[in-house]
Amino acid sequence: MDEENGRPTLLNYNPLPSEFDESTTDDAASDTQLLNATENVANIVDVTSSAFRIQRKSSLNLPKLMDTEKKFFQLVSAGDVNAVKEFLRDTPGLNTNSVDFKGVTALQIAVKRHNEEMVDFLLAQPEIEFGDCALYAVRDDQINILRKILDAMANVRPDLEFEGCPDSTEFPSYITPLIQAAICGHYEIIGMLLERGHEIIHPHHPRCFCAQCKEESRHDDGLRTANQHLSVYQAISNPAYICQSSMDPILTAFKLNVGLIDCSKTILQLRGAYRKLAQEVKAFAVELIGCCRDSAEVEDVLNQWDGCDFAGQVKFPRLMLAMDYNQKEFVAHPNTQEVLDADWSGDWHEWRKKSELLKLLIIFPRMIMLPYITVFCIFLPLSDTVKFHRLPINKMLNSVASYVIFLLLLFMESNQDKVNQKKGPPNTGLEIPLVLYIVGYIWNTTILALRLGPRRFIRVLVNWYDMVMECLFCIAILFWISAYMDVKKSGNADLERKLWNHLEPTLIAEGFFAVATIFAFGRVLLLLQLNLNLGPLQVSLGKMMSQDILKFFILLMVIILAFSAGLCKFYNYYEGMILEDKSTGVKTQQVDSFVNFRLTLKTLFWAIFCMSPIESADVVIENLPDNGEGKPVTNYHDFTEAVGHICFACNFLHPGGFLIVNMMIAELCNTMQKVIDNVDVEWVFGRSAVCMLYANQTVLPPPFNLIPTASGFANVFGWFKTYFRPEVGKSSTFSIAHCCYVEIDIDEERKSNPALMATLCKRYLKQKEQETSMDTEIQALRNEIKELRSCIKKDELQF
């Protein structure tokens, strides 16, 4: 080797003799010279080739076919079975399992060519290796070839057909035939594999900490496990697999959607793939409800109890389950909304034809009719009047009418003159009705929580709002009682307000009552969700409060706490100092900005909204003693003041301050725009939630719901009767979540209607087949148009 230039040294190289020339006249000499030159060139080529062969020894050791094997592959690819038979007969000892550099075998070629006769012949060969041929057959939707391969694999080893191929160049080792078929969505192959006993083991939740998951996390490769779980989810999320493996495809789609969203939040590196799968599964449930052709089918779907754990009888349990799983598109589908609207107003058809103004004005006569309705509910619970008021729309109107009265009482109580107020609870005569209303709303919330269950109840933000409002009223009432007892004990009811202690029970009760009143009037926003024009705005407001503002508030608090930690007592020494200008008499006092943690936090928070004075960062040092010259002595801590001003300005200009506020504004606008763009889903879902909220309430609104009715007594008597004398299909049940209720055994058809689900699946698959056929025809037409255009261009060029 030539070490200087890195090239192989050409041994035995002699240049052509200088005597060799075409003009040489001596023929014998010239022939001899030509022969010597040719030998030298041959030596050069031979040595050079040897050198290059030495270098190629370091290349990858890929499989290489022999000439006979190449001929065998060509014959298999041509599809001539007789020629292959004759070739194998003439070439004994040929390896039929030979592999080319791509990892392809002869059997794989036959499977890819869809040549069943060739596959039969090769499978009959002794010691044939199957490899990943079954997976190729699945991918190409060749069910007959797949069945033959699986039969041959079962003859070799019964459980071989259920395994993947560890040496495949195209499929990972965890891909089994059923997983591949489910990913591809081949309905017939999935059915055939399920009949043969194939199954897909669902992966555990990403946050599962069972013994099996802990063991796998210690030994398994993280990347392989993540990809395997994604492939399994791709398989079990395919509609073709769900239709054949689940008795209730809609419920399965709901649960899969929730599981996939959880995976997207946990496995962040595959977040996009999981969210895409979640959207596809959600769309599958929506398309299934869209396959219903009449209201009866939609009602059968919405009335299915499978997966629900409500106490007693609940209207449309599947719809409430969809709301729990946040299936907005399913709830907002026109088929679902048509049935919900029909149940909302029942046989009161005139309601739909009334204008918005008349619908609003009808509340006022309801306020007068509430006692009349109460009497009917107490004494005539089976009358037509009570049945009419059991409609969800009437429950809502009665509740709104009663709530208007409650708000009027709150306004009158809050608007009392406090100039001559005495110590102790208010004494306007409105306190007893208000307490009855508050107790009625607490009882209404309790009944709703027991009916829905605590876990489902606390998921709804409106219920949290109601509980906070009721707690505030309860605290105010408790301090009213405390103030009354304090007055009775001390007897100083005429003590002037300015002399009261800052923790006087009367003052605390007023504060909590004021905040509770704000909450009560703010609850009117819930009713705006029913209006097409105001509803989207209310939905946007709810999303902004629960998502955007909360996120940015956390960011702001982190930044403000960071600055507050450094500046909390930066100016503590200067607290209360006053600098007086002797010549003008003007006094300047130190601003209480950075003297303690509370005031520092307050200053920095309001500085973000430009509401803190610019003097907050000034350092004021009081006048120093006279130095004997008769001149005032003034000192300045310029560096300390500079640090304070810089930090004060950075708090405003820092990304956690001014920029984050502007980012929050942009995010709020983006949230509202999303709701407006998707108003048919977002607003309809919110309106449906309000409708179901009133549908699950009692006929009598607070405080009339505190009055015992005949139906209430009947329910209590029925529970005790069933408890002591059990009936067939009924049982008196008690649980911490739902308290006492009568559980009625629901027939299997109401739990999950397999016949209806099968019909919907058939319609769905037929619809998808038509869409696929249409897409194929459109693509073929496009290809024909492209070919026609190219032909026309060629003709134009030739012309």
Automatic annotation (TrEMBL):
Sorted UniProt keywords: Ion channel, Ion transport, Membrane, Repeat, Transmembrane, Transmembrane helix, Transport
The UniProt record lists the keyword Transmembrane: yes
Region (Disordered): 1-27
Alphabetized InterPro entries for the sequence: Ankyrin_rpt, Ankyrin_rpt-contain_sf, TRP_dom, TRPC_channel
Transmembrane regions: 360-383, 395-412, 432-452, 464-485, 505-528, 549-574
A single GO cellular-component term on record: cation channel complex
GO MF: inositol 1,4,5 trisphosphate binding; store-operated calcium channel activity
Membrane in keyword set: yes
A Pfam family the protein falls into: TRP_2
Name this polypeptide is given: Transient receptor ion channel domain-containing protein
Organism: Diploptera punctata (Pacific beetle cockroach)
